[in-house]
Write a structure and sequence with these properties.
Helix 12 runs antiparallel to helix 14 (304-322). The protein is built from 16 helices and no strands. It has helices spanning 2-33, 38-66, 69-87, 93-125, 129-154, 159-174, 196-203, 206-220, 223-235, 240-259, 261-267, 270-288, 294-302, 304-322, 328-358, 362-383.
């Protein structure tokens, strides 16, 4: 039973990232193929980052109240199929924008709900979170590699059909997610304890706010890397093959950390991992800004294990220890919305404006954003004792 739970969650992570491995790097190519301008493409890519602020936490809160996380994921996966199939038939900016937003919101809402099921596997079934999550990173690399081949053969029009295929596989694997099984930290809590006031108590907790700033800033500091590293390194004379190898090296480093995450989490607290991730981010982007040689870039790419991987592990561990299980879906959605939504969207738009003026020095701006994350992470380390921030046994009680 233990192996079955862990394996099914790992398999679903793998299926879900089949979509991301095509959608993230190649959707702009399809949008351009459909005739959208650069400005229209930036809007289509950026709008879902901001709209998820209202959608993802709301769906997660309803799932927290019902406890039916797997059922919510299945419904969202079916919706993603409908949106991808619709997108394949559309042309024109506004029609494509609506369908793309619908698809993106489904995908980004599925992720935090999956994290809840994964964390429950860690608590109740002895699963290793990192070893479940690494299958997502592996299939991301596989999907992007295979997609590049198909796009080379068939052209950019193939992108949306590859995304649709990933949605179909994800929906099928969602049917095999483990049954929802609540494993509370402190006994059973009544559903009546879940309210808007409960969420307010969590969000207004100073430590939770520091956590969102710490992880959100550190993740957002990747914005220039995600949006402009390939362009910038190409202008520095690096070949496409070398750029691809550098990106792959970063993902491999991330996979390595996830593979050994069990040992890492036994040695470091969530707050300590936040500090490590933010500090590594300051170092990484500061050096990248000075256009070092390929040898130095190789070493810096290994830091992706810390700047992304350690920060993500810190967030998952923090939520599992600081947030009551009845609020875990909402907390996961808030983290995903802030760290990979608003913060990343804002930093991406900022990078797009600033890069035209200062080119590689934009990475120094990212180092500054990571520095803000480091200050917040140190605040979490200093002010959090490792306990719950809001204890639902006694009603809404903000402890920090």
């Amino acid at each position: 039973m233990q192996f079955g739970y862990c394996a099914r969650v790992g398999a679903f992570f793998g299926a879900l990232f089949l979509i991301d491995g095509v959608h993230l790097p190649f959707l702009p190519l399809w949008l351009e193929w459909r005739g959208l301008s650069a400005a229209e493409i930036s809007i289509v890519v950026a709008v879902p980052f901001f709209l998820r602020v209202g959608v993802s936490p709301s769906v997660a809160f309803m799932s927290d109240r019902s406890g039916q996380y797997a059922r919510s994921i299945v419904l969202l996966a079916v919706w993603s199929i409908a949106m991808a199939a619709l997108l394949a038939q559309l042309s024109g900016f506004f029609a494509i924008l609506l369908a793309t937003v619908g698809l993106s919101l489904a995908m980004t809402t599925i992720m935090p709900l999956t994290e809840v099921i994964a964390v429950r596997g860690v608590r109740g079934h002895g699963c290793d979170y990192g070893r479940m999550r690494l299958w997502g990173s592996l299939t991301f690399v596989l999907a992007s590699s295979v997609a590049s081949v198909f796009i080379g053969w068939l052209g950019a029009g193939a992108v949306v059909w590859l995304v649709l295929g990933g949605c179909l596989i994800t929906a099928m694997m969602a049917l095999y997610l483990p049954e929802d099984h609540v494993v509370p930290l402190h006994g059973e809590d009544s559903a009546s304890s879940m309210s808007v006031a409960t969420i307010r108590g969590l969000v207004l907790s100073p430590v939770f706010l520091l956590f969102l700033i710490a992880c959100g800033s550190t993740q957002a500091a990747h914005a220039t890397y995600y949006a402009f590293s390939a362009i910038h390194w190409s202008r520095q004379g690096l070949s496409a093959e070398m750029i691809g190898a550098l990106w792959a090296l970063g993902v491999i480093a991330e996979i390595g950390l996830f593979a050994w995450s069990g040992a890492v989490l036994r040695q470091f607290s969530a707050a300590a991992l936040m500090v490590v991730g933010a500090a590594a981010s300051v170092v990484r982007w500061t050096i990248v800004a000075f256009d070092p040689g390929v040898g130095v870039l190789v070493l810096l790419q290994l830091l992706h294990a810390l700047t992304f991987g350690a920060t993500h592990l810190a967030a998952i561990l923090f939520i599992s220890e600081a947030v009551d299980t009845k609020l875990s879906g909402t907390a996961q959605a808030l983290y995903a919305t802030i760290a990979m939504g608003v913060a990343m969207g804002g930093a991406t738009l900022l990078s797009g404006v600033v890069y035209e003026w200062i080119a590689g020095n934009t990475f120094l701006l990212m180092a500054g954003i990571a520095g803000a994350g480091l200050v917040a992470a140190l605040g979490v380390l200093r002010n959090w004792d490792g306990g719950l921030l809001v204890d639902l046994r006694d009603g809404v009680e903000t402890r920090f």
